[in-house]
Amino acid sequence: MEKWLQELSDEDRAFIKRFILASGSLKALAKQYQVSYPTLRIRLDRLINKIKVVDDPENRDPFRMKLRSLAAEGRISTVVAKEIIKAYQKEKRGKENG
Question: Are residues 94 and 46 part of one domain?
């Protein structure tokens, strides 16, 4: 199984399956989920970003990948994620040099 697929939640994988079975129609999928098209589009955009995070070679560090995934899901802001990653990298460099 592809790494990006392994990193997705069961809910995300179910969403992808329903999307495929709806022939990629966001309109049809929005009806199934009983949400508006814009709401479904936001969910799809977040899922796309999450997959990009997992595929990004810069995210080999599990901590960094988790933070970027949380930001992609909208669970924390990208600003906060970047600040934490920056502090983490600084701390990590300090330990390597110390």
Answer: no
Q: Count how many domains the chain has.
A: 2
Shared domain check, 83 and 44: no
What average pLDDT does the structure give for the chain?
89
Distances (CA, A) of 95 to 30, 79, 92, 98: 49, 25, 5, 5
What CA–CA distance (Å, rounded) separates 23 from 17?
10
The answer to whether 40 touches 33, Cβ cutoff 8 Å, is yes
CA distance 64 to 14: 25
Q: pLDDT per residue over 7-51, tens digit each?
A: 888 999 999 999 999 999 999 999 999 999 999 999 999 999 888
Q: Which pTM value belongs to this model?
A: 0.69
Read off the pLDDT of each residue in 56-72 and give the average, rounded to a whole number: 84
Give the range of the structural domain holding residue 1, as residue numbers without chain letter. Answer: 1-55
